[in-house]
Amino acid sequence: MKAEVLQNLDNPRQLEKLYRDNRAAFKKEFNALYPSIQEQPVAQIWNERLNFEGENISWGSGRELLFVVVAAFIAGLIAKIPQLFGLSPDYFYPRNIAFIVFPLLTAYFAWKQKLPTRTLAVVALLLLGSVVYINALPRNEQSDTLLLACIHLPLFLWAVLGFTYVGPEPASAARRLSFLRYNGDLVVMTAIILLAGGLMTAITIGLFGLIGLRIENFYMQYIGVWGAAAAPIVGTYLVQTNPHLVNKVSPVIAKIFTPLVLVMLIVYLGAVFYTGKDPYNNRDFLLLFNLLLIGVMALIAFSVAEASKSANRKFENLLLLGLSGVTILVNGVALSAILFRISEWGITPNRLAVLGGNVLILLNLLLVAYRLFKTVQDHQELAAVENSIVSYLPVYGIWAAVVVFVFPLAFHFI
């Protein structure tokens, strides 16, 4: 490739094609060649393009920093509501834990995107209606529909956040793909913040313990709670103002875990058949099967979002195709199990919710697998794979809304 780069320095179109065909190899060969061609303006431009990295951390504008500080403080206040107003934590947190973070993240992107007043009103109505509705549901610890509503509410609020993130322009595949990448980067950044916070907590408590002061309760009730509540907000702020901080970590995580999860699933399915365990008559086993399915589906979506930035896309697409195929098998087992349980014992809110979720995931997986198969033959089809993921995101949000707002009423709050 070195010779091709040298020959095409005066041909921008061909140079760009070489770069897009294999970005990693192009960068390696160009950097090796650069000392001999650094006097040429074209080479200087390409050097800046390939190797420029911001050295300093940006803290954004003063207004943005103030917004984040206030939002983090409000998140801590929401988390402290049971202590401040004498409410039962067992009542408050299952219903409201998602409201500690999602409305504030939604407000952040609404402010950043400068949403029109009509869109802001819709978003505010969805958030306000959700908090009133979930807290108005009858208090019944044995209610399946209440539990389902509490489980699916974060997914619904996540969909509202995505709607806000995309902005006022017509929802494009690129913006939705950017939202998926933001979620992956946020997970990484929040994990780093929480890890650093946990280390600081241990050191602080240990130091005060050495001088005979026991501050564990005070520290965890105030500093710890506020820190945990603020972590996703601060993580979002850092990801948005300094995308270079984690944009190299997330693809590495996707590359590492995609083959590992594929191997794990193959071994796990073999172990299931070997041990004779099945999800047909074991409810807990079926639940774990579905949690596994959701986790793998999330990994596939995240990996597809990162695949477009990879130089060796064909091999990664083959891995994703294999992972999609094995996940379809897992989904088929879970789907047949829930259909078996419905045919034997009838419809319940739990079974219907699981059935609906499994059908949606299966349809999405089949579409993604088909697109990935086409991509293996022609890597230019990667955009179709991305679209098959991001175009389906609103469907999950709509299903979450049905489970949250329709199921309790349809099943009379049982």
From TrEMBL:
For this UniProt record, give its keywords in alphabetical order, as a comma-separated list: Membrane, Transmembrane, Transmembrane helix
Residue stretches spanning the membrane:
65-85, 92-111, 117-134, 146-166, 186-210, 222-240, 252-273, 285-305, 317-340, 352-373, 393-413
Q: Specify the superkingdom.
A: Bacteria
* Protein name per the record: DUF4153 domain-containing protein
Originating species: Hymenobacter fodinae
